[in-house]
Design brief:
Length: about 600
C-alpha cells in the first residue's frame, strides 16, 4: 500500500506562481507577517507530521475505530499521542490572535496545513478541526469574559470545540429544534435536549470539550428566528481557569458509520447542563453561521483531500500493474503484459482525477485567501472578499466534494477488484469521503443557498460582480493565439451563466419549484465554469514558463496538457447541466407520491 506524500510542488506552484502569495501576504495588515521563509518552514514541517505521524495510523485507526463506554469515548491507538505532538508543535494556534496565545498568521496558512493533515488522516483531522471554528466564533461574538475563559485553552489545543446543531427529528431543519434553555438566577442557562451527529463530541484527546449549542429560550419565536446560541463546556471552568465539576452533558452513544470510523460522531444528552449565552437571545443562527461557513470551506477541503489521496494511490498502481496489451502495440515487450497506465480508459480516469485535484486546489486556495482579505485587508479588499466568499462558499462545499468523491471512485476503479478490498487502502478513501457531500449541508442545500439566497436573493448582483471578473479576464487574453480555444469557450460559458440565471429567475416568478429543480445543475454548472477559469490561468502561466525556458519543463507541460483535457473532456458536462436546467420542473414534479414506487 503506497504511503501519502505531501504534494508540495503543486502547492508551491499554486501559492507562489499562480496566486503570488508573497505579494498577497505582504499586502495584509496581519499581526505577524507570513514571509516566504516562514511559509516554506510551515509547509515543510507540517508535511513531515502528516507523512510520518498521521498517515501511519490512518488505516489502523479505521480498523480499530472508537470505543464507547459510560465513562466516555476512547480513540484508536496513536491518536492521543499524535494530538499531543500537534499541540506541542503549536499548530492549533497558527492563525489565532496573539492576544490569546495564537501566532497571528493569516487564516490561509492554517488551511494549507489542513490539506496535508486531512489527506494523511481525515478521521484524526476532525478532532482539532471544529476547534478553529469555535475560536473564530468566540473571537467575533464572545464577551471579554468568555474570550478570556475559553480562547487561550482552545488556541493552545488543550481544549477542543464542537458545533451542536442537529437533533434526531430535525436534521438540517434547525428551525424545528426542541432543545430548551431555561434562564438561571446567576445569568447562566440550563440546557436540556439531545443532539446527534456531533463530530468529536466526546473523546479522550483533550482535557475539556467546549460545545456550541443551539437551543430555545422560553417564549422564543417559532422557526429560525427563535434560536439562541450557548457555550456548554463538558467540565465547568472555575474563576481561576481550572476545571471544575462535570457538567450535565454526556455521550449516550457514538454512531456506527460507513467511514471516518476513527472520528467519534456522538449523540449528546444535555440534562440541565449549564450554558452561557453568546450574544443576545434569538440571534443564534446568525452567530452559528460563522462556524458553519468555516466548516463548509473545511468540508470542501475534504473533497480535495480524498481526490489527492486517491490520485496518488491510483497513479502508483497504474505505473506498476501489468494487464493486457496496448491497442497500438506492446509497450512492455519483455513482460507478459503492459502497464495499465498505457490504456486510454485508465488515462481518462487518472486525468479526470488530476484535473479535479489541481483545479480544485487552485480554486480553494484562492478562496481561502479571500478570508485573509476579509480579516486583514483594506476596506475595498474586505468588501470584494465578502461578496466572493458569500457567493462561492456553497459552490466550494458542494462542487469540490462531489467531484472529489467522483475522483475517489475513479481511483478505486483503476484498481479493479483490488480496489474493493482493504489491502490497498483505496476503499477507505471512498468510505471516509462519502460523508463530505452530506454533512455541513447537503449538495441540495448548498445549491438552494447558492441560487436562492446568494444569486436570486441579491437580484443577480453578486453573480454579475463575479462574471464581470471573468469577462475582463477573457477580454485581456482573447488575442493570445495559444489560449484562443480556452478563452473563447470560457467567454461563452460566462455569458451563458448569466443567461441561465435570468431564465431560472423568470421561471421562478411563475412556479417557485423551478428554482429547486434547477438548483443542483446550476451549482455544478457554476463549478465547472469556475474550474475552467482556474485551468485557463494555470495553462497560460505554464505556457509562459515553457516559452521562457524556466523551471521544470515536464511539470509545466503536464499543466498545459491537463488543462486541455479538462476543456475537451470534462467541461462539456456544462451542456448537459444547461439542458437539464432549461427542461424545467414539470417532469420532476409531475409524478404523484403514490406512483413514485409501485413495485
Amino acid at each position: 500500500m503506497s504511503a501519502y506524500k505531501a504534494p508540495l510542488r503543486d502547492m508551491q506552484f499554486v501559492l507562489k506562481e499562480l496566486l503570488d502569495c508573497d505579494a498577497h501576504y505582504a499586502s495584509l495588515a496581519s499581526p505577524e507577517p507570513l514571509t516566504p521563509d516562514l511559509l516554506d518552514a510551515v509547509l515543510d514541517n507540517v508535511s513531515k507530521f502528516a507523512e510520518e505521524v498521521l498517515d501511519p495510523i490512518n488505516r489502523s485507526g479505521d480498523e480499530e475505530g472508537c470505543t464507547w463506554s459510560a465513562e466516555g469515548v476512547a480513540t484508536p491507538a496513536g491518536f492521543k499521542e499524535a494530538y499531543q505532538q500537534y499541540v506541542e508543535g503549536g499548530w492549533p494556534g497558527l492563525a489565532a490572535s496573539p492576544e490569546f496565545g495564537g501566532q497571528g498568521l493569516p487564516a490561509s496558512i492554517s488551511f494549507f496545513m489542513d490539506e496535508m493533515v486531512g489527506t494523511a488522516n481525515w478521521s484524526w483531522s476532525m478532532y482539532p478541526g471544529l476547534s478553529k471554528a469555535s475560536v473564530e466564533l468566540l473571537s467575533e461574538q464572545g464577551t471579554d469574559q468568555q474570550k478570556n475563559t475559553y480562547l487561550p485553552r482552545l488556541i493552545e489545543g488543550s481544549w477542543t470545540g464542537t458545533m451542536c446543531l442537529t437533533e434526531p427529528h430535525a436534521g438540517s431543519d434547525v428551525g424545528i429544534i426542541k432543545t430548551k434553555a431555561e434562564p438561571n438566577a446567576d445569568g447562566s442557562y440550563s440546557i436540556t435536549g439531545t443532539k446527534i451527529f456531533i463530530s468529536a463530541g466526546e473523546h479522550d484527546m483533550s482535557e475539556n470539550i467546549i460545545h456550541m449549542v443551539l437551543a430555545r429560550v422560553p417564549g422564543a419565536p417559532e422557526g429560525t428566528k427563535g434560536i439562541s446560541l450557548f457555550i456548554v463546556p463538558k467540565f465547568l471552568v472555575n474563576d481561576d481557569g481550572s476545571l471544575g465539576e462535570r457538567n450535565g452533558v454526556h455521550c449516550g452513544s457514538i454512531e456506527h458509520k460507513m467511514g471516518i470510523k476513527a472520528s467519534a460522531t456522538a449523540l449528546l444528552n444535555f440534562d440541565s447542563a449549564r450554558g452561557y449565552l453568546i450574544g443576545v437571545e434569538n440571534e443564534g443562527l446568525n452567530q452559528m453561521f460563522i462556524m458553519m461557513n468555516a466548516a463548509r470551506v473545511g468540508t470542501a477541503m475534504q473533497g480535495l483531500c480524498m481526490a489527492e489521496a486517491g490520485l496518488q494511490k491510483s497513479v502508483d498502481y497504474a505505473r506498476e500493474r501489468l494487464q493486457m496489451r496496448s491497442l497500438t502495440g506492446p509497450k512492455n515487450p519483455d513482460g507478459p503484459a503492459d502497464r495499465i497506465i498505457v490504456h486510454p480508459d485508465v488515462r481518462r480516469m487518472l486525468l479526470t482525477q488530476k484535473a479535479f485535484v489541481e483545479g480544485n486546489r487552485a480554486f480553494l486556495y484562492w478562496l481561502i485567501m479571500q478570508v485573509d482579505k476579509e480579516t486583514y485587508g483594506n476596506e475595498e479588499q474586505k468588501k470584494e472578499a465578502d461578496v466572493a466568499m458569500a457567493l462561492l462558499t456553497p459552490i466550494a462545499k458542494a462542487f469540490v466534494t462531489e467531484t472529489g468523491l467522483e475522483a475517489a471512485n475513479l481511483a478505486l476503479q483503476c484498481y479493479g477488484g483490488h480496489g474493493y478490498i482493504r489491502e490497498h487502502g483505496v476503499e477507505q478513501i471512498v468510505r471516509d469521503g462519502r460523508i463530505a457531500t452530506v454533512y455541513e449541508g447537503t449538495t441540495g442545500i448548498q445549491a438552494l443557498d447558492l441560487i436562492g439566497r446568494k444569486v436570486l436573493g441579491t437580484g443577480g448582483e453578486s453573480l454579475r460582480g463575479f462574471t464581470r471578473v471573468l469577462h475582463k479576464y477573457c477580454e485581456q487574453h482573447k488575442d493570445n493565439p495559444e489560449m484562443a480555444g480556452m478563452i473563447g469557450r470560457l467567454a461563452e460559458l460566462n455569458k451563458e451563466w448569466g443567461e441561465l440565471t435570468m431564465e431560472i429567475g423568470a421561471g421562478a416568478m411563475k412556479n417557485a419549484d423551478e428554482v429547486g429543480a434547477a438548483s443542483v445543475d446550476y451549482l455544478m454548472y457554476s463549478g465547472y465554469v469556475l474550474l475552467a477559469w482556474f485551468w485557463a490561468q494555470m495553462a497560460q502561466l505554464a505556457q509562459r514558463k515553457l516559452a521562457a525556458g524556466e523551471g521544470d519543463a515536464n511539470f509545466y507541460t503536464a499543466k498545459v496538457q491537463t488543462a486541455r483535457f479538462y476543456y475537451e473532456r470534462i467541461l462539456p458536462r456544462t451542456l448537459a447541466h444547461a439542458a437539464a436546467m432549461r427542461a424545467g420542473a414539470e417532469s420532476t414534479m409531475a409524478i404523484s407520491e403514490e406512483n413514485m414506487y409501485l413495485g
